[in-house]
Specification:
By secondary structure, the chain is an alpha/beta fold. The protein contains nine helices and eight strands. The protein has an eight-stranded parallel beta sheet, sandwiched between helices. α2 links the parallel β2 and β3. Bound molecules: zinc ion. Zinc ion binds next to loops.
Length: 255
Amino acid sequence: MLFDTHVHLNADQFNDDLEEVLERAKQQGVQNMVVVGFDRPTIKKAIELAEKYPHLYASVGWHPVDAIDMTDEDLHWIEELSSHPKVVAIGEMGLDYYWDKSPKETQKEVFRKQIQLARRVKLPIIIHNREATQDIVDILKEENAAEVGGIMHCYSGSLEVAKECIDMNFYISFGGPVTFKNAKKPKEVAKELPLDKLLIETDCPFLAPHPHRGKRNEPSFVSLIAKEIAELKGITYEEVVLKTYDNARQLFNIK
Ligand SMILES: [Zn+2]
């Protein structure tokens, strides 16, 4: 029973063969997934997929790269959707200093507004961080994100920051990069952190794990991430699968 906590099956890359992708995931033991929406079209599609398939859930939020496009109506819409029975989290949200489409100040404002929203509706948040670690940690603290907690999605930072996030009620989620041969830091962090604070994800169609690196990613590959974590920690694959599955159900409050 695997739980892929971060998929973009709402992306155009899955338009032609979604049924086959879902079937392969099932064959591999992927029981549940959270489809993450991050702008108008992907939020709409995430909800549609969660309504159509019983084992899919949705997260709704606004991506920092597009922060400049978010209107008050969008924020209001996200808040309305938060009461949908299949919506289990708010995000992805955060800061992305790699791309410069949206100014930093706009990104921060949109990030803060979404944390405040999540606290109003009492849902966990999914954090996207690219080259903005210190500002993310500061804002999570200032906005008291610990009250709802959430996920540090596709984590690639240090062990120290991971521990700081865990203290703020966050889970650390590993994706494809932890399987890359040269990924020393994520491997070390995955090895050191307690299993009851870890989650697994593909972030498909992006960041396919080894040996599929560079190709389209899909939820069935999440098993490769669980295998890697089991090897790093010197425990069984089953143990990683069961514990990360429980962690996800608990965080998303899925009975
Ligand atoms: Zn994502």
